Amino acid sequence: MKAVSIHSFGGPEVLQIEEVIQPTPASDEILVQVFASGINPADWVVRQGGNDFLRPFLKLPIILGVDAAGIVAEIGSEVTAFKKGDLVYGTANFPGDGSYAEYCVAKANQFALKPKSLDFIHAAGVPLASLTAWTALFAHGSFKAGQRVLIQGASGGVGSFAVQFAKAKGAYVIGIASTGNLDYLKHLGADQVIDYTSQKFEETVSDIDLVVEASPQRDNTERLKAISVLKLGGTFVSVNIDAPVNEEVKVALAQKQAKGEFPAYQARREWLEEIAALIDKGDVKVSIDKVFPMEEVAAAHRKSETWHVRGKLILEIKKML
Ligand SMILES: NC(=O)c1ccc[n+]([C@@H]2O[C@H](COP(=O)([O-])OP(=O)(O)OC[C@H]3O[C@@H](n4cnc5c(N)ncnc54)[C@H](OP(=O)(O)O)[C@@H]3O)[C@@H](O)[C@H]2O)c1
């Protein structure tokens, strides 16, 4: 099968399209014929050799890619949730050989039936970013309907889903992005938008129940500002688990009696099913910034590395006829 793999860590030039052996699913896995794969920052972080968190788990050569949308081609002996021919979306085993390939294997519980209203291109943009937003808001964010929720990086992959999930579940949502993305945030349903290029959010909002740091900033000074707008007893969730907080941030959290959470995404079928239902109901939209053919994977990585993606970038593996 054709796959995008790397034999050494480095820049986009290390990406190679090559013929590799099609994988075989273990007893608890499925083999998915991949039609489209979402591009995520995690893909080029792996390409570069990983961060402190990932590095010990990376073995070369490796096929990149986490998000996949496609058709179940084979099921492991213990898998009961799927049958051959099911149209699915989910996340490949991570870290490990991934979804920039004509076929990938994954634990069956990391996949669900794809939203019926989405084609493979749009479905491939959902899994990792939406699961990260879901994990942040609902598993770690102490989210409750009626709360005031502030999303940083609201126009990106994770942020776009966080805005829509929080809105769909009854929050007052404030999104932060750059000037050109403010209308996009309103289109997603944000009640209030802040332009980080011309406004100081810490002087604009207050009494926030939950801040989600879904921007790529990894900056403890920015975190202090985010904690300053929290209500007493609020929650600060950062999805940037590779950027630990310093003592000053710990003290600020304690003074606010606030919770600080740094979760990795959890890949769970039941969450992907709930997300698919929200999408099919029309409560959540999937915005695609650009679709790249497999041959242009290096260009896709370069675009993702700018950190200015509106919604999702997609790698098309196979065209639907
Ligand atoms: N914990 C996990 O398991 C997990 C999983 C996935 C992702 N992540 C992390 O989540 C973060 C977001 O990922 P993503 O896939 O959503 O990335 P993305 O699609 O590239 O989005 C990044 C967003 O950040 C905004 N941004 C860029 N520079 C900024 C700045 N200086 N200040 C404020 N906002 C800025 C951009 O908005 P504008 O274009 O409007 O500036 C952009 O929409 C990344 O740091 C990623 O590593 C963590």
TrEMBL record:
UniProt main location, coarse: cytoplasm
SMART domains assigned to the protein according to its UniProt record, in alphabetical order: PKS_ER
Subcellular location: Cytoplasm
Listed PROSITE patterns: QOR_ZETA_CRYSTAL (PS01162)
SUPFAM superfamilies per UniProt: GroES-like, NAD(P)-binding Rossmann-fold domains
Keywords attached to this entry: Cytoplasm, NADP, RNA-binding
Pfam families in alphabetical order: ADH_N, ADH_zinc_N_2
GO annotations of cellular component type: cytoplasm
InterPro entries in UniProt: ADH-like_N, ER, GroES-like_sf, NAD(P)-bd_dom_sf, Quin_OxRdtase/zeta-crystal_CS, Zinc-ADH_QOR/CCCR
One of the record's GO molecular function terms: zinc ion binding
Enoyl reductase (ER) domain span: 10-315
Self-association state and partner proteins as the record states: Homotetramer.
Cited PANTHER family: QUINONE OXIDOREDUCTASE (PTHR44154)
Protein name (database record): NADPH:quinone reductase
